[in-house]
C-alpha cells in the first residue's frame, strides 16, 4: 500500500540545498501535515477551490489557491495549497515542485536511472502570502480542471458502454472480457468521467454489483466484483465523476434492477455483507466484498450519500465484515477499517467528526450474543478482537481505529490527527530503484 503523506508547507530552495548536503538524492519527501489556509478549519479547502491568487494586474497570470490536479505533472506555485492524494515531485536544484493525480505503482520516467533514497524532511510553515485584489475581468477557474480526451477512443469501451446503457448483459465470454478492459480504462480520468456521466450505465454497474453471484464465464472474475471495481476506479480521485453520480443518485436509488425484489436503495448498502457474497472459494468471496467496500468508500465522500449510508444501516453491514476469523478476510477487513477512520474519525483524512459513532460502547459479553453482535456499540469489541489476533504488528490498522474510536466515544467529536498508517505489516514507505550516473534532480512522494 502506498504511504499516505502530507506536506507541512512549501519547501524553500535553501532548505532543499541543505537537504542535498545531508545526502538526499531523488528522495521521497514526507511531511507531517497538509498545509491549511487560515480561513479553512481542519484543513478544509472548500473556500479556496474558487479563490484566485494574483500577483500582477494581468488576469491571465492568476491561478487558484487550491492546486488543481490532472493526470499529468503540472507546476505547483509556492503559495498554492495541495489537496490530499497527489503524486508530488520536486527538483532539488531549482526548487520547482510539480504534482499530478497519484496512480499507485506507477513509475516516474523522470527518475529513470537515478538513485533513490529514503528520508524525511519537516519544514516549519511559512506565513501566508499577502492577498492581491483579483482583477474584475479575471477568468473563472474550474476547480476540476480540463479533462484531456485520448487521441482515439477505445472501441471495446464504446461496445461495453452501449450494452450497459441498454441494460443488456450477454452471457458470452466477450462481455466478461469487455468488463475487464473497462476496469482497466476506468482508472483514467477521462474514461472514468465517461462512465459516470451516463446514469443508465451507472445503474447497470450498480445492478451487477448488488447482484448475488452474477453470471461469469469460466476463467473470469465475477461480474459483481468487476462492476464494483469499475465504479470504485471511476470515482476515486475524480471529483467530476462523483459529481455526475451524485446528481443522478436519487433516481438511481429508486431504480429497480432486472429480477430484483427491491430497489437499489434497499440493497446497495448491504451488498458487501459476507453472507451475500458466498463463493466456492473463500478468497473470491472476500475479494468481492473488498471491491464493494471500495465503491462505497468512494461514494460516501459525498455528504448526502454518507448520511444516507448511515441512515440505511451501512455501519451494521460494514461491521459484519469484521466477524470472520479466516485469514482470507484480512484485506477486506482492512478496507472496512480504513473506511471508518477516513470518513468518520480522522479530520486529516477529510472526516467530519460527530456523525458517527452516536451510541455508547457495549460490554464484551453483550457483543458476543447473536442479538447484539452487530450493534453500533460493538465496534470496539470486534476491533479489539482483531487487534489481539495481530498483536505482533504495531502498524496494524486495528490499532489506529481502536484508539480513534475510543476517543470519539469519550468526546463525542472523534480524534482528529493520527499517525500515518501502512499496509499490513509494512510501514507504507515508497521505494525507488536505479543506478544511474550523474546528479539526481527530483524529490518525489506519493500521498
Automatic annotation (TrEMBL):
Keywords in alphabetical order: Endoplasmic reticulum, Protein transport, Signal, Translocation, Transport
Keyword set includes Cell membrane: no
Signal peptide limits: 1-31
Skewed-composition ranges (Low complexity): 32-42
Region span, Disordered: 30-53, 392-447
Tagged with keyword Cytoplasm: no
GO function terms (MF aspect): adenyl-nucleotide exchange factor activity
Quaternary assembly: Interacts with KAR2.
Name of the protein in question: Nucleotide exchange factor SIL1
Organism: Drechmeria coniospora (Nematophagous fungus)
